[in-house]
Amino acid sequence: MQIRENRVKQILKSGGTVLSSSVRLPEPGLCEILGYAGFDFVLLDCEHGAVDASAIDRLVQGCFAGNTVPVLRTLRNDDPEAVMHALDLGVQGILIPHCRTAEDARRLQQAAYYTPRGKRGFGPGRGALWGRVPFNDYYMQSNDQIVLLALIEDVEGVENIEEIAATGIDILWVGTGDLAADYGLPGQTSHPTVMDASARILAACQKHNIVCGFPARDMEAGQWAAAQGYRAIGYGGAEQYVMQGGLRFLESMGRK
Fold first, then answer.
1. What pTM does this model have?
2. Is the per-residue pLDDT at 123 higher than 90?
3. What whole-number distance in Å separates Cα of residue 201 and Cα of residue 179?
């Protein structure tokens, strides 16, 4: 029996572009809604949001209800147990923050993949459909259905981008917010220095035949990123959409 297919992997293999959004609050319905809206994956934000182990379990169910891929953004880039635990709960992708070196990327690969590609501990749960998929089948199929992402959001990461890209990780994601701060330009995510660094990351990804991701802050930025060759594009989060929609209505009624 087959394990759940990872649609993100399939889209990228076919040369397509994946679109994502995120959730920070532990509300499965938000994941479900984003899936119904058509996002290819939902980022479950454990770094900046209120997402703990029990929340991961429920958010994954919300993603599956909406037919979208759950990807966990970890709190740290060096926590193999958290990676293993999330994958056992059914998460189909992992994003680590602050990938500064090739060793950071390789550490993620070691934590996420079963031997011989990695050193992930064996104890599947939802990923094996709670035992409906024989463990040996799950073991043989799992590595090919996991998507791994790493945020390049430090000057050090930009300087080491060739070595990081050469590890073959699936997606390297430009973190414009922290990059701007690390360059001494807090809040200036569109500053030429930040955009030059983004272009450098994109070029390294294209050279090594891996996907580069970019955070779009509006629809025009998303269209621009796609035209530049970024093949993973993120747009805001569910909580942000609620706020923006609410504000537009209130402003239309004369509220400020």
1. 0.95
2. no
3. 12
